What does this fold into?
Amino acid sequence: MALTDRIKKDITEKKQQKLNNVEYFKEQILLTDALKEDYDNAVRSIDSDLLGDITTVNNTLIGVQSAYQNRIDSGCRTDLFWRVEGYNAGTGNYSLVVEKLSVVGYGTSVAFLNSSGGITTYADGVIEIPGMGGDNLHAIRYYDEPYMKDIGDTTIGSFIGIVGTASTILAIASQSSDELISTFDIGNLIICSKDGVFSGGNNKIVGFGSTTITGITTTVMEEVVGIATTSFEVSTIILETATIGFSSLPESDGSYTQFTVVTDPDTFEQTQTRFRYQVKFGKNPFSPQTIGILDSSTIGIGTFIEYDNSAKPPAAQSWKPELEGVEKKGEKIKEPKVGAGRIYNVVGFTSAPTYLGTPQPEGTKITTTILTGLYTPITLPSGCTAIENTLTSSISARNTLESNLSSGSNCIQSKVDAANALRTERAEYSLKIWGLRQSIGGESDRIDEYEALETYINDTEETINGTTSCL
It folds into this structure.
């Protein structure tokens, strides 16, 4: 028994030392975080300024879109055209239907009949057929890594996902889907950016699997995943409860649904506060990296930011940058495509679909062998001159503010550079905090081992004394 007492005493002392170390590391974290706070405030200040600049410019793009739509709604242009649905080679008949221009596409390829009788076919997923235009939005893209996250940030990663109604299988639309799920655990919660997909607003991970994504256009796959294919094997998350809605690729409005995985709050708020501070000792501080678009909820985050004016989808996506260039399934792993997105304008036409001299409403179907003479100039109502002037002014305001983003006193790049310089300085504090949190993780693992050993010794003593039996 003397040996057992000596071991118990030694374990108790060592465990207490580990607990003291944890308290010291926590104290150092709080002190370091206080020093970092000045940089946090400075970064948030510049980010807020940048977001204000971006919002102001994007509002002019929305203004242009509204001015174009007002021209349509006022009858100064039409948004209708003849679409070729089919052709009978035996009879020479064309099947035509009056179609309406759409800012979200048409669900299939479009054979457009122009006023000269010519037919041009546009692939599935193409929105900007004749009569449609668009502008790339402006944004600030951020790159965020684990070591930059605050202690209270329970976010693990984000991705674009696909799930059907009443399903428990959520597919990750990412080239690095299997690497990404390696960072998730059973019990993690999932939050969806689209309302009505999960009952109660979130779901829980109960397992993982794989599936093959099919039926998606090459245009969408290239835009989201970066691979021009219609069939793609990806990892899946098995959900605890079936969905009540769905997430498609893309949605009917052309957007993409973002899913975010977070630590279960019950796990984060465990009784012993050391669990809130710790990270696993061997956890990579730089991966997975999350790429997203700065908004009011993400101001100040990230290791660095950059200005973006691409049409790439704005949904945040996570990946493992250390795998960039590694070949996987015949394709090299690339950075996820995340950008500002694009806004579409219904420019319309000056001539409307007609048949036998009569303008035709949306949905009208005809069969004809003659493809000319099927458009007639529209009759302009009063007020079109003023509407055209408003559109011209909106375009001018957009052009002026877009130009100011790259020149003059409002040059956005100088603010981006300043914000990144501050982020670089802040990173030194963040890396120190990360190291302290890893130290807590290492000490916490040892504390768990000591507690398990103490339990074993106590149980053994009880068994020897005849108070416990394994039988």
